[in-house]
Write a structure and sequence with these properties.
The protein has 16 helices and three strands. By secondary structure, it is mainly alpha-helical. The chain folds into two domains: 12-281, Up-down Bundle (Rhopdopsin 7-helix transmembrane proteins), CATH 1.20.1070; 303-360, no CATH class. Residues 297-326 have a biased composition (Polar residues).
Length: 361
């Protein structure tokens, strides 16, 4: 990245500007949030007795890289991030090489995996749900794209200059760097496109469910929770265009690192949300949380258990169980289906068995 910033005389007010506090606060907040949601995901899967799989390994690595990225953002403040470049180069020129190695090498390289590992974990979860050929092929293609994107971007950053010093010393004789600033900015397009496909992917599955509209909305919102990162990916892309780092490397760098931390953190949090339903239902009992994560409402005074299922594609047909009267059965049809939790259980290729549990008065 060849800097276009040229130190000149500046006012005291200009040199006193510092955006490092915003970076530190944001990083700390996301370290806490990432740990909370990853912990909830881990507890939830333990509570459900789900064996540790490769999607869990990817999420674990994603959590570690996101924490490392946020922590490195805090460390970067010691090297002048958040301060005006002119002030840093005048008062602490010895910090510039440390700042360059950290902000222009380490942070972008960590970011390459921090945004992709949680998405790959979600795709692994999708592979355990989708059984039709095209959905599974799409998941595998997206897995390849996300993995390849992380690896390609990592090595592009690692070898962006013929000598590392050239990135913070553009006048270094013989120094040459690629325009990695533009590369990191526009790499967000891959994230945005893959997110859009991941949003579209479950739509056909949800549409085929033979359940009430309210239940479909609840299930759709559960899938959509895994794509919250799309919003921050778009926001990060816009911020990188509006605030090019070359204008004032250390000062603008704080804003850009904030958005990098937020984007990767939201990918991790949204990926964890898909698996947090059991624990969240125990912690929070509001209707909003119940609708989004389980569409499962508790009703007092219910006793006899019944289970229904169907195997015609994707279905939620009800079956008769127990000794019931027409009144309770009618209420079961109208109320219990809306309030029940639908679990998609694979049976055979191109078929999904939808199991529902409810209680009858």
């Amino acid at each position: 990245m060849a800097s276009s910033f040229h130190p000149t005389a500046a006012s005291h007010a200009f040199l006193s500007q510092n955006d490092s506090t915003s970076l530190v606060v944001t990083a700390i907040v996301f370290i806490v949030l990432e740990t909370i949601f990853y912990g909830l995901r881990t507890l939830s899967r333990y509570y459900q007795k789900i064996p540790f799989g490769w999607e869990d390994a990817l999420m674990l690595l994603g959590w570690v890289t996101c924490l490392t990225l946020a922590a490195d953002g805090i460390v970067s403040v010691r090297f002048g991030t958040g301060q005006r470049f002119l002030k840093v180069i005048q008062e602490h020129p010895e910090k510039i090489p440390l700042w360059g190695r950290n902000n222009l090498y380490a942070i972008p390289m960590i970011y390459c995996f921090a945004v992709n590992l949680p998405k790959m974990s979600v795709l692994g979860l999708y592979l355990g749900i989708f059984l039709d050929k095209w959905s599974r092929w799409t998941c595998w293609i997206l897995l390849f794209v996300c993995g390849a994107s992380g690896i390609v971007n990592f090595f592009t950053v690692a070898f962006q200059c013929n000598t590392p010093e050239a990135i913070w010393s553009p006048l270094l004789p013989g120094g040459r760097c690629d325009n990695v600033d533009a590369h990191i900015t526009y790499s967000a397009i891959v994230n945005i496109l893959t997110d859009l496909v991941m949003i579209i992917l479950p739509i056909s599955l949800v549409k085929k469910l033979q359940v009430t509209k309210k239940v479909k909305i609840g299930i759709a919102l559960t899938f959509l929770s895994a794509s919250i990162g799309l919003i921050t990916a778009i926001a990060r892309f816009i911020q990188f265009i509006k605030n090019p780092i070359a204008e004032d490397p250390t000062y603008q760098g704080a804003k850009l690192i904030i958005w990098i931390v937020v984007e990767s953190g939201m990918y991790l949090i949204s990926g964890c949300l898909l698996s947090c339903r059991p624990v969240l239902n125990k912690i929070m009992s509001s209707d909003a949380v119940s609708t989004i994560f389980s569409t499962n409402r508790s009703a007092s005074g219910r006793g006899t258990k019944a289970t229904t299922g169907g195997t015609s594609g994707i279905s939620g047909h009800q079956g008769k169980t127990g000794n019931t009267t027409e009144g309770p059965k009618a209420r079961m049809d109208e109320e219990s289906v809306e309030g029940g939790y639908y679990r998609l259980e694979p049976t055979k290729p191109d078929k999904i068995y939808v199991k529902k549990q409810f209680s009858i008065v």
